[in-house]
Amino acid sequence: MSDRPDPEGPPERLFTADDADALLPELIGAIGRIKQARHVVLSRGRRIREVSTRNGGGAPGKEYWEAMATLRRDLQALARLGVILRDAESGLIDFPARREGQDVFLCWRIGEERVAHWHGMEAGFAGRRAL
Asked: Among positive and negative, which fits the CA dihedral 72, 78, 84, 85?
């Protein structure tokens, strides 16, 4: 793992495949919590707007705000790690990296045993290639 200086902010963390693999257990837990919290927020949001003027949202309101706190906490934790959550539903994560002198992303998603793909900065998931 190395850091690349960024004149506009703190150094960006660059990952090797081994660095990224070491984070997978932590990422799997965070993604599971994010998915669950996202579902609560989406399902309870409408209900909260309907009843909040009468009773503050009651139990659904409490669930909603707890889910929002979970989302905030886990998304901030991922940002501190230096990874990029591309899609919570599929658990798609990009890890900034350098390959053959070029800035790229190592790419992984829930269900894959290890980080085994990469793509260019502009290519996205459709441009994934095996390491």
From this structure: negative
- As a whole number of angstroms, the distance between CA 114 and CA 95 comes to 13
In angstroms, what CA-CA distances link 42 with 37, 39, 73, 74, 77?
A: 9, 5, 17, 17, 21
Angle at 26 between CA 128 and CA 96, to 5 degrees: 35
Which positions ≥6 away from 22 have C-beta within 8 Å?
none
What does the alpha-carbon distance between residue 58 and residue 35 come to, in Å, rounded to a whole number?
23
Contacting residues for 21 by C-beta, under 8 A, at least 6 apart: 114, 115
Per-residue pLDDT of the chain (131 residues; tens, 9 = 90+): 444 444 444 447 899 999 999 999 999 999 999 999 999 988 877 666 666 555 555 666 788 889 999 999 999 999 999 999 999 999 999 999 999 999 999 999 999 999 999 999 999 888 999 99
